Amino acid sequence: MKKISSWLIVIVASVVCYGGVKTASSHATEVAAYQDSVKQRFGASTFKTLMKAKEVYLYRLDAFMDYDIDHSPEMFKDIPIQAGPFKLEKHQIKEIRNWVQQDKNYRFDHILKRCMPSPETGLRFIKGKDTVDLQVSIRCKDMRVYTDARVILEDIDPGVDAWTTNIGAVLHSLKTSQLQYND
Asked: Residue 168 has what pLDDT?
């Protein structure tokens, strides 16, 4: 019994001491794992369009906008556009791609939420003739991914803070006056 417990102590100590250390190669594997999982969820074609798009446009959306049928605003899928499109620069696109491809920003367990869809942000990714649209709702903590073939609903609860911090800074770098709500 003493031999087993001393081996157990050595194993636990090894895990505690060395388990948190990451090498560059383990980080590369970790990032690749994120991409593979998100790639599987979105599909290879959609993921490729998101990662390789040459043009990305931002839209400010307002799901609760009051309008009448005679004076309806332009729509981004089924949500009224309040401002945009704004063409994003390469560094802004890079930040958004970095967030989109990380598995840790999603909850893939398909728990249904009781939240009326209310996306505030629309993003259009264009790669040649392929287009993928994203609608992001911080309020509902979800994202809709629109492709030609389907609509994918993802829970982004784990990634909302990162979206607000990192992507919020990217979006804030645009002309703030153009993105203001018309209250």
From this structure: 76
